[in-house]
Fold:
Amino acid sequence: MNLIVKILISALAVMVTQYILPGVHVDDFMTGIWVAALLGLLNATIKPFLVILTLPITIVTLGFFLLVINVFIIELAAGFLDGFSVDGFWWAVLFSLLLSFVSSIFNSLDKKEERY
Structure:
């Protein structure tokens, strides 16, 4: 049940983020759910390997290369899903940063509700 709630919160964050950024397009909320689930799956499976493979360049760039890995994951998800598209590299960077920010806000609201 907790996984479903996390995916729904992530989908809500995806939808809010796509309304803010004109270069990111999500057809509907169901597509947003698929985007959230696929991003979670790609971040859990592919991202750790990419981080290990690119560790030297990540160290040299003081961690900024992780943004490139996030963009790659987002573009990969956009390639798999028909109703999700990102117009370019910089829109994907902004989407990654804003999605992290919005998700953290929604997750902090979820944590506050669990305390009471």
In short: The chain has one domain: 2-108. Residues 2-108 form one domain. The mean pLDDT is 91.
